[in-house]
């Protein structure tokens, strides 16, 4: 089932080749202008005008989007090990970071069909789709090379084509409220097996994820990650927000635009992964007993874990667990645990992070 290619290396190399011959100042200037445009742009208005815009912005943002979506898909795969999507619809996918992430998690194809996963990227920007097609054409993944890149409006269409997996990443923030609702409802209706929604790890991004989560549950899906439950979020609105971090290698373009000399940065993101219960009435996967929602604090002889356990009357929705050295295997697991990882007294520690080397991006 899991046969990951070196997709992350392929993507980095492909993006680096795009920038060959493009003066660094020109690329950095385009990125800065696009970032300013996105921040001040009315919801729904595309700002990627041509290939130059798309190349610059893809080189700057695609690695971070890839890592965040891969972390979310890893969490889903960890809780639903039998999920091996034969079809994937990426809504608002632009240059295709999410379909690269799916290739990193599930490899090249679906075991039940014996062929490559049928992949479709839907976006309103033709220049972004054209660049995505160009990047995918050079991949070793047949699922990427064979992907369909389809132009269309996002959030206004009455429905979406059915697919085993539907991803919606970094899209809801670009849409007005009614279009967000329509898109999430359409994604839920189109998903045969699972929906994954990813947004920036900000208070507003978390609010949009909570909104989407409620609509997915209302459509009959069951949350598998990051929440260990499908009940109400135990976080008090306005006091905190649920988010995680993915480590991203920084290119020279990143360093020029953002300054600094570190070889990496941390992409903060919020997400929800939900599955449709099986035809036999089965759950389609098993949520974790708890999720680590802050960076573990390692102290002498003990590790402090901040956990979300859901609306449990006895243990509480949010709690801190102290794992001492006397607990042996659980203590060793806690020392290796990561922010965002599943936790079941040490049995699930690391979990989804083990496939991609961890997501711990520093303190929260």
What can you tell me about this protein's structure?
The chain has helices spanning 7-19, 24-40, 51-79, 97-106, 126-137, 142-145, 177-190, 203-218, 252-258, 329-336; strands at residues 87-91, 118-123, 148-151, 163-169, 191-200, 222-225, 244-249, 264-275, 290-292, 297-299, 302-308, 318-324, 342-343. It has 364 residues and is an alpha/beta fold. Strands 1, 2, 3, 4, 5, 6, 7 and 8 form an eight-stranded mixed sheet that branches. Strands 9, 10, 11, 12 and 13 form a five-stranded antiparallel sheet that branches. It starts with 6 loop residues before the first helix and ends in a 21-residue tail after the last strand. Helix 2 (24-40) packs across helix 3 (51-79), helix 2 crosses helix 9 (252-258) and helix 3 (51-79) packs parallel to helix 4 (97-106).
Rg (C-alpha, Å): 20 Å
Q: How many runs of DSSP E, i.e. beta strands?
A: 13
- End-to-end Cα distance: 34 Å
Largest sheet: 8 strands, mixed
Q: Which shape, going by the Cα principal axes?
A: globular
Return the string of H and E elements: HHHEHEHHEEHEHEEHEEEEEHE
Defining traits:
364 residues, alpha/beta, eight-stranded mixed β-sheet, five-stranded antiparallel β-sheet, disordered C terminus
Care to give the gist of this entry?
The chain has 364 residues and is α/β, with parallel strands linked by helices.
């Amino acid at each position: 089932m899991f046969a990951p290619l070196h997709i992350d290396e392929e993507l980095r190399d492909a993006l680096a080749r795009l920038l060959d011959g493009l003066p660094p100042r020109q690329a950095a200037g385009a990125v800065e202008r696009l970032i300013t445009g996105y921040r001040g742009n009315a919801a729904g208005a595309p700002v990627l005008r041509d290939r130059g815009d798309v190349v610059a912005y893809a080189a700057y943002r695609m690695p971070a989007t890839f890592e965040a979506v891969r972390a979310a898909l890893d969490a889903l795969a960890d809780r639903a090990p039998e999920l091996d999507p034969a079809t994937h619809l990426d809504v608002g996918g632009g240059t295709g970071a999410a379909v690269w992430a799916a290739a990193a998690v599930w490899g090249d194809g679906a075991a039940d069909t014996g062929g490559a996963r049928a992949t479709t990227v839907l976006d309103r920007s033709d220049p972004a789709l054209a660049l995505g097609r160009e990047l995918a054409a050079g991949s070793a993944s047949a699922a990427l090379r064979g992907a369909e890149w389809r132009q269309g409006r996002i959030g206004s269409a009455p429905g979406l084509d059915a697919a085993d997996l539907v991803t919606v990443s970094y899209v809801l923030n670009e849409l007005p409220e009614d279009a967000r609702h329509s898109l999430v409802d359409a994604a839920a209706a189109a998903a045969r097996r699972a929906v994954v929604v990813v947004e920036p790890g900000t208070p507003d991004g978390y609010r949009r994820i909570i909104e989407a989560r409620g609509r997915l549950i209302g459509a009959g899906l069951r949350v598998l990650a990051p929440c260990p439950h499908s009940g109400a979020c135990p976080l008090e609105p306005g006091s905190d927000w649920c988010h995680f971090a993915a480590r991203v290698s920084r290119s020279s373009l990143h360093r020029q635009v953002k300054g600094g000399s570190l070889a990496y940065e941390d992409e903060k993101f919020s997400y929800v992964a939900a599955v449709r219960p099986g035809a036999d009435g089965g759950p389609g996967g098993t949520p974790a007993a708890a999720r680590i929602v802050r960076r573990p604090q390692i102290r002498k002889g003990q590790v402090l874990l901040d956990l979300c356990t859901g609306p449990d009357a006895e243990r509480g929705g949010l709690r801190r667990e102290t794992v001492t050295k006397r607990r042996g295997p659980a203590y060793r697991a806690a020392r290796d645990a990561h922010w965002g990882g599943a936790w079941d007294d040490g049995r699930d520690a690391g979990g989804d992070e083990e496939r991609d080397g961890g997501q711990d991006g520093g303190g929260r």
